[in-house]
Amino acid sequence: MLLRCTVFIHFSLCLSVLAAEVFNGNFPFPLSEGDIKALNNALSEGDIKALNNALFASDDNTEEEELITLENSIFDDECAAQTNCGDCTSKKSHFGQGCRWCPLTSGNTCYSYGDHNNPCSSEEQQTDPDQCAPLADVKKPVVILPGLIGTGLDAKLTDKKDKANPTCYETTDDFFQIWISVPQLLPVVYECTMSEWELKYDFETEEVKDNDGVEIRIHGGEANYGPSVDAVMGWEQIAHALQAKGYKLGVDLFSAPFDFRMGRKQFHDYDYPKLKNLIEEAYVNSGEQQVVLASISYGAPFGQNFLVEFVDEDWKDKYIDSWISMSGVFNGAPMVVRQLITGMPGYGIPWVDTKVLRDSMRNWPALAWLVPGLVEGGDDRVVTYTESHNYTLSEVSTLLADGGAGEAADMINKSEGMLTDADPGVKVYCWYTFNIPTEYAYAAVDAGSEPEIFYGMGDGTGDLHSLNRCDDWNDVEITLFDGLAHSAFMGNETVTEMLVELVTSA
Ligand SMILES: *[C@@H]1O[C@H](CO)[C@@H](O)[C@H](O)[C@H]1NC(C)=O
Ligand SMILES: *[C@@H]1O[C@H](CO)[C@@H](O)[C@H](O)[C@H]1NC(C)=O
Ligand SMILES: *[C@@H]1O[C@H](CO)[C@@H](O)[C@H](O)[C@H]1NC(C)=O
């Protein structure tokens, strides 16, 4: 698209910001073509406009706007109104050429010939009604469970007195998107964002709440919960591939976005009751078909704990068909220990201060929940070697407390049964990568100092001992991936095809 290209060509910084958004800074460069597409998809039109406004503030902004208006007027024809492949490909656009159906990249969207907004490659777009992909006969309802940083978040500032820097706002009239939003990650501005998504933790009551003067909700609020995929990030390709097979939002396609800063306690109070209702709704709306859960990364503890602690056997037998878990971190990730103690480089964005990022996340129950623990019968291996003491998995809360992350240590100490490695009692398709070097243990002068890193096996984010917790479950089919990085499951065509195949076969 015109605007997108302008941004990409002139601003390599955008690329690093975009990459950072989708891959959490863990993704190896250079990016493949598929990744670039995923990046593009991750950005909404609004973000691009906002970014452009920020970058072109003084110069040719007006010219850009005029170009867009011009473009819109040329391509505002009947193609845009079509909602299925057959109707789309049998219509003609302004230039007398057939309209183009683009099912995979942009969902149920029909483009005019020559429209710069059309993100499809020429092989991908459909112009011949006879070639329209057949709709699936079987469409098991799918509920998407996103991962850490995988839900869009909005903030509203009611009275944020304690500002990270003088440019930060104190109040806003309404909610605005802070995650993921490119302008909110620009230099200086990002400090405001970090301070806005910080949480307060009360050691006495174990309650967490938003920072003073800030309200945070999932992007778009409750309207985006359930019959929408607008608040979950990275799932565009999968959602669009399902839609191309005839899936419909609110009928057999749903998402369960959640505030990814939160952990088990908050999920039980707030998210699990909603998820239970949503699954029941998906069952009813799809003609009493059992539901497939599809999760990535932190969606694994989120989903496992729901299935093990929140619902019973009878409920699962009635409502759940199966669970497709991708890159499921069933026992967290060692790198979370590093993130909590010394901090990790900020999403691959050069200007993000590691300590600012670390401090903003230190009170997130999510990170405490993602600290690996000692599994029953497991090896109490050393996580961090120091001159005075070697800290093993069973001592990880002491390590955190000694390293300055007292809140996370306290959360871990007080939450019994936090491990999420027990059999969830449903059919599970467990998909993970086993052979990418992954942070595994550390050596440091003391608990709080900058460590040296030891690598083990895993998917680049989660280590193998976390990803393979599902191996011994009762009803599980394991699929091992070769060299596919943690977050790269999102937007990978092979993975998407596998998922679509599973949910569209009896
Ligand atoms: C930590 O473990 C290493 C390797 O096993 C060992 O050489 C060292 O003496 C241990 N350090 C302490 C303080 O126990
Ligand atoms: C957590 O528990 C461990 C072991 O019981 C204890 O040594 C440590 O001081 C506790 N840490 C916190 C922060 O409560
Ligand atoms: C997608 O995953 C498959 C299977 O692991 C792999 O062969 C392929 O290279 C991946 N595609 C991209 C674009 O990374």
TrEMBL record:
Signal peptide segment: 1-19
GO terms, molecular function: O-acyltransferase activity
Gene3D superfamilies, alphabetized: alpha/beta hydrolase (3.40.50.1820)
InterPro entries for this protein: AB_hydrolase_fold, LACT/PDAT_acylTrfase
GO BP term, example: lipid metabolic process
Keywords: Signal
Pfam families, sorted: LCAT
Name of the molecule in the record: Uncharacterized protein
Species: Triparma retinervis
